[in-house]
Design a protein that fits this description.
The protein is of the alpha+beta class. The chain contains 14 helices and 14 strands. It folds into 4 domains: 44 residues, no CATH class; 101 residues; 182 residues, no CATH class; 87 residues, no CATH class. The strands form 5 sheets. It has a 4-stranded antiparallel beta sheet. The chain is elongated.
C-alpha cells in the first residue's frame, strides 16, 4: 500500500474511531523502496501502458499456430497452396497469389511439423532459379485493437519471371528510330568492272531480301517497320526498332560482301574469257549450295518448333527460344542469299548464250536420257525421285526452255529417268548424292542408257546400295 493511500485510511479511521482499522493500518507495509520517489496520484493514473508491437516477418511470434505436415508430389503453386489448406485444416490458410505465380511449377516438397510461414517460404526454393519472388505477410494498421487478436495471418505471393536480354532491351525502346542506307555499293556497277558481266544486284532483289528477313524476325508485339526506297539517289530509308534496323544493316553487309567477292573473283580470273561450260559449272555449283542452304533452313525451322514445344511445357526458358529463333533466321537469310546467287548466274548464263547466237550445238552438249536405279533405297526412293524432279524444275525455270532438264520417277521399277544436257545429268547425280549422304544411303552416281537408246553416261550399272 502506497504512502498516500495509508494516509487517507488513517484519517478515515481516526474519524470513525475504529481500533481494528488502526491495527490493520499498523500492519500494512509500504510497497515502495525508500530510494524510490512516489509518483503523484495524477501521474500514476495518466501513465499509458506500453503496447505490444505486432510480430515482424520472420519473428518467432509470427510462427505461432499449429505445426503442419505436408507431402506435395509436385505441381503448380496453386496446387501447393491447396495442399497446405488441407494439411492445416481446420485452421485456415489465407494466401493471396498472383496469376503469374499461381502457374509456376514446383518440385516435390516434403515438410514435417513446420509453421505455416516456413511452408509458404519453401515455394521459392521449390521453384528454382527462374525469377524473382516476393513472399510477405499482409499487415493492416488498426488503432482500435491489436491486429493479431482473433485474426489468422494473410500471406502475399508475387512472382516476376526472368526476361531475356532482347526483351529487356525492347523495354528501353520508347519510339522507333529512322536510319538511312545507301544501296549503290550493291546495285550500281563500278568503272573497273569487266564489260558484259553483271556483278551487282537489282534494287528489287535487295529490297526483297531485306523485307523477307524482317518478316521472319518480327514478332506480333514488334512495331511495324516502314521501308522507303528513293531510286534516283539510291537511298533506303527505314523506320523501325533498333533490332529491325540492325537486321537491315546486317543484310546489306552480307550483300556487299558477296558483291565484293564476286568482283574480286571476276577481275582475278578474267571473266571475259570464261566459257559457257565454265559458267554452267558455276551455275550447277550455286544450285547445289542453294539446295544445301534450303535444307539447313528447314532443319533450323524444325528445331525452332521443337524448342517452342519444350518451352510451352516449361522445360526450357526464353534464352533458348531466342537462340533457336536467331539460328532459324540466319539459316533462312543464308538460303535466300544462295538463291540470289543462283538467279544471278542464270541471268549471266542466258546472256552468254544469247551472245553466242544460233550456233549449232556440239554433239557432246545435246540432251540425253539416262536411267538411275534407286530401287535399293526402298521406301526412300520415291521421296528422292520427287526431290530430284523438283530441283530440275527449278533449274529449268532459271536457264530457259532451250536448256531445260527434267526427271520422271517410275514407281514400278524404282528408277529415275533424267532428260537433260550433260550439265543437267551431272546436276541430277549430285542432287541424289546429297540426298543419299543426308539420309545415310550409298550412291555411286552411275547411270545407264535411257529407253530411247540415247547415251546416258556410264553403263557399268550402279544401283545404289544401302549402307
Amino acid at each position: 500500500m502506497t504512502q498516500w493511500k495509508r494516509g487517507i485510511v488513517a484519517r478515515y479511521l481516526a474519524v470513525c474511531g475504529s481500533a481494528a482499522g488502526l491495527a490493520l493500518l499498523a500492519t500494512a507495509q509500504p510497497t515502495t523502496r525508500p530510494s524510490e520517489k512516489t509518483p503523484a496520484p495524477s501521474q500514476a493514473k495518466s501513465q499509458p501502458q506500453p503496447e505490444t508491437p505486432p510480430p515482424e516477418w520472420g519473428d518467432a511470434r509470427a510462427n505461432t499456430g499449429p505445426l503442419i505436415t505436408v507431402e506435395f508430389p509436385g505441381g503448380t503453386v496453386a496446387n501447393f497452396i491447396e495442399a497446405l489448406r488441407q494439411a492445416a485444416s481446420p485452421d485456415p490458410v489465407n494466401a493471396v497469389v498472383s496469376d503469374t505465380a499461381s502457374r509456376v511449377v514446383l518440385a516435390p516438397v516434403r515438410l514435417r511439423k513446420v509453421a505455416l510461414e516456413t511452408a509458404i517460404q519453401s515455394i521459392e526454393t521449390a521453384a528454382g532459379d527462374i525469377g524473382s519472388w516476393r513472399i510477405s505477410r499482409v499487415r493492416l494498421e488498426r488503432r482500435d485493437r491489436d491486429p493479431l487478436v482473433g485474426e489468422s495471418p494473410v500471406f502475399s505471393v508475387l512472382f516476376e519471371p526472368k526476361r531475356s536480354s532482347a526483351a529487356r532491351s525492347a523495354d528501353l525502346v520508347e519510339k522507333p528510330m529512322i536510319q538511312v542506307y545507301s544501296l549503290r555499293d550493291v546495285t550500281d556497277p563500278k568503272p573497273g568492272d569487266p564489260p558484259g558481266v553483271t556483278l551487282v544486284l537489282k534494287p528489287e532483289t535487295v529490297l526483297t531480301a531485306i523485307k523477307s528477313g524482317i518478316e521472319l524476325a518480327s514478332a506480333e508485339s514488334t512495331p511495324t517497320v516502314e521501308i522507303k526506297y528513293h531510286q534516283d539517289s539510291g537511298l533506303l530509308i527505314v523506320r523501325g526498332s533498333p533490332e529491325q534496323t540492325g537486321l537491315v544493316q546486317s543484310t546489306l553487309n552480307a550483300l556487299e560482301g558477296d558483291v565484293r567477292m564476286r568482283r574480286a573473283s571476276a577481275v582475278q580470273m578474267g571473266v571475259s574469257g570464261t566459257s559457257i561450260a565454265d559458267m554452267r559449272a558455276q551455275f550447277e555449283k550455286a544450285n547445289l549450295m542453294a539446295m544445301k542452304e534450303q535444307a539447313e533452313a528447314k532443319r533450323a525451322a524444325l528445331s525452332l518448333e521443337r524448342v517452342r514445344s519444350q518451352a510451352n511445357a516449361g522445360a526450357i526458358g526464353s534464352e533458348e527460344i531466342a537462340a533457336a529463333e536467331a539460328r532459324a533466321q540466319n539459316a533462312e537469310i543464308g538460303a535466300r542469299l544462295a538463291q540470289v546467287e543462283v538467279d544471278r548466274l542464270a541471268e549471266r548464263l542466258r546472256s552468254m548464250e544469247q551472245q553466242e547466237g544460233q550456233a549449232p550445238r556440239p554433239a557432246d552438249t545435246a540432251p540425253r536420257q539416262a536411267t538411275i536405279d534407286l530401287s535399293a533405297w526402298g521406301e526412300k526412293s520415291a521421296p528422292a525421285g520427287t526431290a530430284l524432279a523438283s530441283a530440275l524444275e527449278k533449274v529449268s525455270a532459271s536457264v530457259g526452255k532451250d536448256h531445260a532438264a527434267s526427271s520422271r520417277y517410275d514407281a514400278k521399277s524404282g528408277t529415275c529417268i533424267v532428260t537433260a544436257e550433260p550439265w543437267g545429268q551431272e546436276l541430277a547425280r549430285r542432287v541424289l548424292g546429297e540426298y543419299a549422304r543426308t539420309n545415310g544411303l550409298a550412291f555411286d552416281g552411275a547411270a545407264r542408257p535411257g529407253p530411247d537408246g540415247a547415251p546416258g553416261g556410264r553403263t557399268d550399272g550402279g544401283a545404289p546400295k544401302k549402307k
